[in-house]
């Protein structure tokens, strides 16, 4: 039969850093069908049946599925007439094998549109139930179900048209926050600002983000593009490594300049690779006019005050005095 939502299936990168696993759980059954997408083929399905390992009679179909950001856990949210169940599995990115199945049960008188998301550090599970309550669970605990903690309850807020901002679908965003949409016709997102933190320290704020238009009543179903190979695993054979994220690091003439922070109101800290004995630092605005100049002696660290500069983008240049080396980078000044 048809699946109820676009989030009733998901995908995750294979441990070789290139291929993709696509997982589509069976409707009304505790069966998971996996496909392997390679550059030239779609292999599968590889079916895994867990009826023997878990007493699971699905009275309603699965609602949403999600992998932990590190790819080690897979969860499936299902509904019955009187309670919600979260099926939790360990996942092997090389073989596609789901194992160590567990069930987390959350009872509630009103069962509707439950949803789950997982924190960036893959430790905390967030689960909204009946569109009114948001819970947190700790995957690192021996008894996960016992760690259930109420994070927030719907505060009754409505938009000017009278529609409720009750809880609905959730998704982890690239900025490390978890956003939660409402149902149709609502232009607000709720936000979990610090999902890696335990309990209410996760900083859940309702109707926190006002959108410029009315979105769909679901969140985008994006896979994790930021995780590649399983380092030193049996399938790590293609020489593909997770790219190292470099922030505010600019190379010029094979010289390195690191600015921290790159966007500042007061001062910035500059570190040069192989610094010169004496240097001359200049700042230019976008019109090419010199707005700041500073001389210094040998040091790996340079501190520059930007309090007197107007907000905007500047070009920073550090030149070796009586030498040929130079370093350049852009600097953002905010007020």
Give the key terms:
5-stranded mixed β-sheet, disordered N terminus, 335 residues, 4-stranded antiparallel β-sheet, mainly beta
What is this entry, summarized?
The chain has 335 residues and is mainly beta. Helices cover 0% and strands 45% of the residues.
Largest sheet: 5 strands, mixed
E-strand count = 25
* Beta content: over 45%
How does the overall form come out from the CA principal axes? globular
Q: Which segments are poorly predicted (pLDDT under 50) over 5 or more consecutive residues?
A: 1-6, 52-59, 245-254
Distance between the termini: 56 Å
Kindly describe this structure.
- The chain has 335 residues and is mainly β.
- Helices cover 0% and strands 45% of the residues.
- It contains no helices and 25 strands.
- The chain has strands spanning 10-13, 20-25, 31-37, 42-49, 62-67, 73-79, 83-91, 98-107, 115-118, 124-129, 133-138, 149-153, 170-172, 178-180, 188-192, 204-210, 249-252, 255-260, 263-264, 267-272, 278-284, 290-297, 301-305, 312-320, 326-333.
- Strands 19-25-24-21-22 form a five-stranded mixed sheet, with no helix packed on it. Strands 1-2-3-4 form a four-stranded antiparallel sheet, with no helix packed on it. A four-stranded antiparallel sheet has the order 5-6-7-8, with no helix packed on it.
